Amino acid sequence: MSIADGRPRESLVKYDPPLELGPAPPEMLSRKGKAGKPMSLKAQLGKKTQLPPVESKPNTDDVLHALLPPREWIEDSKHYTQYVSNQHATRLDVIQLQEALDQRLMERQARETGICPVREELYSQCFDELIRQVTINCPERGLL
What we know:
Layout: E1 4-5, E2 19-23, H1 26-30, H2 41-46, H3 60-67, E3 71-75, E4 78-82, H4 91-107, H5 117-137, H6 139-143
Parallel strand pairs: 1-3
Antiparallel strand pairs: 2-4, 3-4
């Protein structure tokens, strides 16, 4: 597994506060001089994770972490991990998500027509946040 150098980019997905796992692994510190690129959320989602069996009632946290794996990075020679939040979304959270999406689209100057990687990334984050919210309310529906 690749661990990114530096804090991951801000995301529209709601995360818990980062947890410090201790000192960074020595093999990661030895490559300090090399440019490390933080893993995008899309790359993190591409990693295979084991989903719970269908026969049993899925645990919300298990499904949530399988769909949206934790982010890991090294900052100031310390290893951090950050899990997606398992807090229920309120009506206000949904409105704030819409406003944050609109704001970031303007800040990053996403094109309104044609293929735009910035728009694709932001919409992907928005859909991931919606999936997180649905999964918390009903894990089975979140798996769909």
